[in-house]
């Protein structure tokens, strides 16, 4: 019987040593105290046989308590449980104000810089999504509520005026600076 430590030493030796070496089993036996080259060779042959059996699909996959017998569906079901879709967390007025400052400073499209230096609580993808929604809201506010299904084009987004001009009172203080409060 091989202990966990002996198996670990055996496997490490297999990774490190040249398998084509004529004295492979002697070299491994030196690294696994208490095992002879003959025992190492028997253990190696058992390992090779186990690997061949597994790779030839002769060993059934274990059932880990899931009633679903299809292995693909089991894997997909486990992925769904491990990574459920999170619902978006609403942006705070402070985050939006920081977004507007970043938009003025870094410009439209530099979501990575806005995320890294202004809205540090959001990823670049979240900043980009927020920007898209913001510009649609700005464009729709110019339509007086008409055509709420407007799809903004790149040209329209680039032609959009400064986002700060749409902000109104009241003002909020952040680090002794005053910024307009976000009014959706």
UniProtKB/TrEMBL annotation:
It comes from Acer yangbiense. One of its GO terms (cellular component) is nucleus. The keyword Hydrolase does not apply. Residues 66-76 have a biased composition (Low complexity). It is found in: Nucleus. Keywords: DNA-binding, Nucleus, Transcription, Transcription regulation. PANTHER family: DUPLICATED HOMEODOMAIN-LIKE SUPERFAMILY PROTEIN-RELATED, MYB-LIKE DNA-BINDING DOMAIN, SHAQKYF CLASS PROTEIN. Gene3D superfamilies: Homeodomain-like (1.10.10.60). It holds the Pfam family Myb_DNA-binding. Residues 83-135 form the Myb-like domain. This is HTH myb-type domain-containing protein. One of its GO terms (biological process) is regulation of gene expression. Residues 83-139 form the HTH myb-type domain. It comes from the Eukaryota. Residues 91-139 form the SANT domain. The keyword Transcription regulation applies. GO terms for molecular function: DNA binding. The lineage of its organism: Eukaryota, Viridiplantae, Streptophyta, Embryophyta, Tracheophyta. Its main location: nucleus. Residues 62-81 are annotated as: Disordered.
